[in-house]
Amino acid sequence: MDSRLNILYNKKPCYDIVFSADFQRLIHELKGLEIESRRVCVVTDSHVASLYGDQIMDLLEGECKEKALFSFPAGEENKTLSTVKDIYTFLIEKKFDRKDLLLALGGGVVGDITGFVAATYLRGIDFVQIPTTLLAQADSSIGGKTGVDFDGYKNMVGAFYMPKLVYMNVSVLKTLDGRQFYSGFAEIMKHGLIKDGIFYEWLLENMYEICDRNVDIMQEMVERSCKIKKLVVEKDPTEKGERALLNFGHTIGHAIEKSKNFTLTHGECVALGAVAAAFISWKHSWLSMEEYYEIRDMFVPFNLPISIEDIDPQEILKLTKSDKKMENGSIKFILLKKVGKAVIDRNVSDEDILNALSEIHYVEDGE
Ligand SMILES: O=C(O)C(=O)C[C@@H](O)[C@H](O)[C@H](O)COP(=O)(O)O
To answer: Is residue 254 a known part of a binding site?
Structure first.
């Protein structure tokens, strides 16, 4: 069943999220943005282009002034300024002006890059998010964080820039590659852990239906996840304070992502970072041992790692300190006071981090 949610920005209605089980309503929604008088460029990656590129281009036929599709090679390694430059060149060649529109069709990488191009091309043109992965639907397409990685550092260059619409076809998740599906689950679980213990319990209870990808359950899960994110980003759209809670699992997660040269998915790294942060929360006596183990073990049925081989803890510690979350020389670490309530803690020591890294560092017997 189609439903929608409006996101406020500075307390005013800003954009709608439409939840649907197909792409049929997309053109109707885009008509609300007057596409008949605009050029529309679909920005996507090589993988999503082969799955949905033709379908979206067919839907646009005769509905807008002119249509174009730009596709770049899939993968986090292409979330760079070089891809941004290629998109600018394409838009200039196609004579896109400020009244035109970009559609970001794909996962988090496509959404982040397209949003960044939209924020900067001609000092800002409109864009729409059409997220096609669980991670993008439940998390990254909402809240206006856009950007690229720089020199291997995650999301180092970017802008807060709001889409005009987010259109989610939840049924695309049915055929999403398993690793990508589970990667998104890490962010959903994060939402429960930081803000909503009841949602966390619901995820525990519905674990098997989620793994079976029942469309109704997936829609409910994505909608509930988006509602949690809505509450956080509406209060603090540009991360002056509380929005940093959404970084639970990311401080160590981003460091692992970089140290492993982006060979693990973002969600896999967030799961490892979340286990480490939950471990520190237990050591601070905020979580009980049972709660810590329950959180850790909940990642397992979703094929998410809870330990990792071949890491250099000192390197991860160093990378953790070069993440964007440093402020006046201390790390803004996100910990759990209890399940459903996260806090920003600036007193996490190097020793706390190294202990947490040894908890998630898998070392074979005899090594
Ligand atoms: O929207 C946010 O705010 C988030 O922190 C969501 C995160 O899950 C997401 O990965 C985000 O891109 C990380 O933000 P960053 O500022 O740490 O790069």
So the answer is: no
pLDDT tens digit at each of 367 positions of the chain: 789 999 999 999 999 999 999 999 999 999 999 999 999 999 999 999 999 999 999 999 999 999 999 999 999 999 999 999 999 999 999 999 999 999 999 999 999 999 999 999 999 999 999 999 999 999 999 999 999 999 988 999 999 999 999 999 999 999 999 999 999 999 999 999 999 999 999 999 999 999 999 989 999 999 999 999 999 999 999 999 999 999 999 999 999 999 999 999 999 999 999 999 999 999 999 999 999 999 999 999 999 999 999 999 999 999 998 877 777 778 899 999 999 999 999 999 999 999 999 999 988 775 5
DSSP code at position 51? I
Residue 321 Cα to ligand 1 middle (Å): 17
Ligand 1: centre distance to CA 165 (Å): 19
- The predicted complex's ipTM stands at 0.97
Q: Whose CA is nearest to atom 10 of ligand 1?
A: 140
With a Cβ cut-off of 6 Å, ligand 1 is lined by 139-140, 143, 145, 154-155, 187, 239, 243, 246-247, 250, 324
Is 18 annotated as ligand-binding? no
Helices (H), 131-265: 134-135, 178-195, 197-205, 207-212, 215-235, 250-259
Q: Is 145 annotated as a binding residue?
A: yes
Domains, the chain:
3-175 (3.40.50.1970), 230-360 (1.20.1090.10)
- Ligand 1: atom nearest CA of 246 is 5
* Overall pTM > 0.80: yes
How are the residues of the chain apportioned to helix, strand and coil, as percentages rounded to the nearest 5?
50, 20, 25
DSSP code of 122?
G
User: How far apart are the C-alpha atoms of 284 and 236, rounded to whole Å?
Assistant: 27
Distance 247 CA to ligand 1 centre (A): 6
Measured CA to CA, the distance from residue 130 to residue 136 in angstroms comes to 9
Instruction: Output the CA angle 53-146-10, nearest 5 degrees.
Output: 120
